Amino acid sequence: MFRRLPEIETAAKTAAETVAFTIDGRAASARTGDSVAAALLANGVVTCRNTPVSGAARGPYCMMGVCFDCLVTIDGTGNRQGCQVRVSPGMAVETQNGKREVER
Ligand code: FES
Q: How far apart are CA 60 and CA 48, in angstroms?
């Protein structure tokens, strides 16, 4: 569904260009400078949360901080906008299901 532009995909990939992180505990990688939302899409994760009312699936849409459909838990802090945060080495990203938990 989502993939990088061919010229970007075929560019040399060095360790400095790659960031290792996790999505729901699974190992994943991104390119240096990717937002969390872009990294999720590049790793095949199109649903990052479910609405608390209807349970409808939501995923990154605007990629510029407007729609709030990219909310995820990052390093234990919930309701972070994935499109507004750059992925960093060792970052733990979790999808969100249902209502946000207090203190999270
Ligand atoms: S994708 Fe719309 S706010 Fe992040």
A: 7
Cα 37 to ligand 1 centroid, rounded to whole Å:
8
Q: Are 69 and 80 in contact (CB under 8 A)?
A: no
Query: Tens digit of pLDDT for each residue in 38-87?
Result: 999 999 999 999 988 899 999 999 999 999 999 999 999 999 999 999 99
**Do the strands 57-58 and 49-50 form a parallel or antiparallel pair, or are they unpaired?**
antiparallel
Q: Is the dihedral of CA 64, 65, 71, 73 positive or negative?
A: positive
* Total-model pTM: 0.87
Pocket test for ligand 1, best of 47, 67, 79 (most atoms within 8 A of CB): 67
